[in-house]
Amino acid sequence: MQTRKIVHVDMDAFYASVEQRDNPSYRGKPLVVGGSPNQRGVVAAASYEARKFGIHSAMPSVTAIAKCPGLIFVRPRFDVYREISTSIHTIFKRYSDLVEGVALDEAYLDYYSA
Hints:
Blueprint: E1 3-10, H1 14-22, E2 31-34, E3 43-46, H2 48-51, H3 61-67, E4 72-74, H4 78-92, E5 98-103, E6 106-113
Parallel strand pairs: 2-4
Antiparallel strand pairs: 1-6, 2-3, 5-6
């Protein structure tokens, strides 16, 4: 008998991790992907290093920079994130016929196991 399972995949810090992957000088440093604190920006994603300062997504960028003055701000590159997300969803489809993307960094998979 097969058992149906719903698997929820949420790729934590996805945008920030992509930026750290693509730019080695960002690795190990507090980084956010989002708008500038000088232009009423908002944090879209925070690296694990930035999270240690209490920085999280949806936080105003001006609040984030106050919590961590050395914070690195990177503008989003949604075309790159979309391309990587598509590749990851291709991997998901090897394991499930039903993959429902919620966002570039989140999906649900129906999975049947013996």
